[in-house]
Here is the input.
Amino acid sequence: MHPDRYYWMSDIYPTGAMDGYIRTALDRAHVVRDLYRRVSNVQHPDTWHPVLVICEQCGKVGTTIVTRWDGERVYYECRANLVTWAAGCGHSGWVAPFGGRAKLPWNLEWAAQWSLFGVTIEPCGKDLATAGGSRDRSDAIAREVFEREPPINVAYEFLNIGGRKMSTSKGRGAAAHRIVEVIPPEQLRTLFIRPRPNHAIEFDPEGTDAIPRLFDEFDKLADATAGRPVKGELAPGFESVFRYALRDAGADVAAEAAAFRPNFGHLAFLAQVPGADIPARMADEKGAPLDAHERAILDERLAAARAWLESYAPDRARMAVRETTPEEAGALDDEQRAFLGALAGAVVPGPDHDGAASGPAGGDAWQTAIFATAAGLGLPPGRAFAALYLAFLGRPNGPRAGWLLAGLEPAFVARRLREVAAPDATMGPAGGAA
Ligand SMILES: [Zn+2]
Here is the structure.
């Protein structure tokens, strides 16, 4: 039934790592019998004990039944008629069931593994996840016998990718494989465990912002867990979802929540800016150098962003900032030009280093400046954003403009804004912060 797991576990038992769980299961045999009755309507005799001894005489394991436990040894019988598929040899005796001489029945073994390996999420096929089924039994065993909350249950059959079931057995394996190259483990876990009761997980990354939104959702969970303000609604239990999404079950949740995480959309943009010093920009945004963990997060996200741009990203996310003023910017009207000129005022000469220009700190600050400047001139935001996209990308749409501007050199931004705002006045040398 689970051959891979069985053979692999057979290496674990001789190490003694399972001994504590075997002892607990035997001490609480009455609890196990009771929950089998309750959860699965399986009635074992009152002498039944939840451990399978390997017969010392014939070596079989499925033919033995343990009927007594004295705290150190079990009494077992290798019965001829216990199961239909094998005949026991009739041997009986006392043996210490440790160090590989016995194993736990499947449901107990499964629950014990959750504790042994610190499992916090266990994808589970629908066949095991039915009411009263194997998973329910192991959940009950985890709680009542091993006194541990079972992992979050995920029926992975319900994950639909682009409206079709994701499955490695139905020709969609390639897609499933590709998706894990773009989505790191913590965001993939978020996809599975975010609260969507009784709903299939609809996830359509092809040509959409589904993957950036998944990162944003994870970051929102982190923000909320860290007590930072978040926009929009928060599902109840967000702290648990964040905790379970973390790759390391023993992680310091507060430290993880507090860590600086770069916005995925911003990174996807920066990844396309030639020569952008991304770690330096991220340090600016954080307001301090990134620590080693944050640097690792950045590297992982940058790789994911590049993979996304090469695979699933919609065309509008792929863009190139024009090195010279785009011809298309000639279509802008006077109001839009006035807006760009006013926005150039948001970029001020920096007081403390080399007289270089500095802009609003980060994408959000730029976004705020854009809205405020447009509002001050009575220009609808849509036309303000179109002006920015035409001025920098040569097209009327693009990614979040605040992030776009935050990703560029402030001096370059100021120069371009002024050039487009007053095309006849700025044909001279670059950099005039008039
Ligand atoms: Zn035997």
